[in-house]
Design brief:
By secondary structure, the protein is mostly beta strands. It has no helices and seven strands.
Length: about 60
């Protein structure tokens, strides 16, 4: 999984090549991004990835 910070949003690219863009949530955030049931919280070199219907997954750079 690759997470690319675009400023007001992040682009998440999975190992299957599919990508999804998540906006900042709320819009003035630079560490929390999400849409509907998917979210990413970035904290330094770690990220918590939450996808609707799945257990949260902790990731490191």
């Amino acid at each position: 999984m690759t997470v690319e910070n675009l400023g007001g949003s992040v682009r998440v690219v999975g190992s299957d090549g599919m990508s999804e863009e998540l906006p900042a949530s709320p819009s003035n955030q630079n560490s929390r991004f999400g849409f509907e049931h998917d979210a990413i919280v970035i904290d330094g070199s770690e990220a918590l990835v939450m996808k609707g219907g799945s257990s949260p997954m902790a990731c490191k750079r």
